[in-house]
Structure formats: structure tokens, C-alpha cells
């Protein structure tokens, strides 16, 4: 069974729709500005009440404080990112230091073992040089005395 909506649009349909969308999105004569960039439009000239002007001043003060707070938050975020980068760098350096320290520890341990072995051999040679002549002289005296 064929699909119910098997219509394939023409290229003229697609291009025509694209032009209409482009015109509606990029229309420079549009009275609608971005609310979040510019804020609401209010004609304050009609509002001459001192309470409203005082309230407007307070709102402007709050907006100024909020802009400063947002700026501080952004600066803080940048500092936190820098701190995170430094922390990551420090962590990688500490891992490298730990591995090098372990390697150095093993190397020094082997050098220490070699040194002890050499010292033991030297002491054995010195004792052999001292004891062997004594044993030989004692054995000659015992052989010559019978």
C-alpha cells in the first residue's frame, strides 16, 4: 500500500518558502525588537507621576546592580576556569613527580644494595688477608712440633 502523503515538493516550492522565511526573519523594517536585548518599550513621557519616576529610578538602579553582578559572575567564571586549568596542570605534574620519585627510589635502593654487597666483599677480603696467614702460620707450627 503506498503512503498516503507521497507528494514530493517541487524545487520552486522549496525555494519560494525559503525566500518567504528569509524575508520574514531578516526584515529590517520590523517594529519588533529583541525584548531581551533592549528590554520593554514604555513611553515614560506620559507618566509624570513622581512615584512612578522614583520607581523608575529604583528600577534603573536595580538594573545597574544586576548588570554589575552579571559582570562579576562572568569574571568569576573566567577565574574559576583559570583555576581549574592550573589545578589540572598541577595534578598532571604531581603524577609525573610521583612516578619519577618512585623510579628514583628504586634506583637508589639498588645502588644501596650494590654498595652493601661491595662493602661486605671488601670486609671479607680484608678478614681473609688477616686470617689466612694466621691459620697458615699456626698449621706450620703444629706440623713442625710433633
Automatic annotation (TrEMBL):
Among PANTHER family, the record links this protein to: VESICLE-ASSOCIATED MEMBRANE PROTEIN 4
Report the domain of life of the source organism.
Eukaryota
Q: Identify this protein by name.
A: VAMP4-like protein
Q: Where are the transmembrane segments?
A: 117-136
Q: Record's Gene3D superfamilies?
A: 1.20.5.110
Concerning CDD domains, the annotation shows: R-SNARE_VAMP4 (cd15869)
On whether Transmembrane helix is a keyword of this UniProt record, the answer is: yes
Provide the alphabetized UniProt keywords.
Coiled coil, Membrane, Transmembrane, Transmembrane helix
Q: Which Pfam families does the entry link to?
A: Synaptobrevin
Q: V-SNARE coiled-coil homology domain spans which residues?
A: 51-111
